[in-house]
Amino acid sequence: MTANENTVVQYLRMLESRTSSDELDNFYHPNAEQTEFPNTLTKQLTNRTLQELKEAAEKGSKVLTKETYEIKNLLSIDNTVVLECVWHGTLAIPIGNIEAGGNMKAYFAQIFEFEDGKIYRQRNYDCFEAFS
After folding, report:
1. Would you state the pLDDT for residue 41?
2. Measured between alpha carbons, how far is 38 from 125 in angstroms, rounded to an integer?
3. Is the pLDDT of residue 19 over 90?
4. The predicted structure's pLDDT at residue 93
5. Structural domains in the chain plus CATH codes
């Protein structure tokens, strides 16, 4: 496993057990930018800075009680890592036809570009199972 692949795996494990959005500083370059392509939850193309990622993480902590990432594929070339995983989230609040305490499932493809050993650019292609 390359150093960048290991960083992605450690990043996912942090997401599963995080206690503070400040933990993102350990993984993201200060000038990081994340792009989330349109999906069932995010209706339009969204770009986020590190500060905006932290704000989204704080909001997410009110929506989820637990999340897990099942890695299916992890590939890299040069400074880029491509991840394919299955995400499971346990809801703290109802969303669509899923009640609080229920589970959501999504299939993620994520591309991470690294600079100075940290995530500099991230692109998310999230595909959620129906929940409405």
Report:
1. 87
2. 8
3. no
4. 96
5. 3-128 (3.10.450.50)
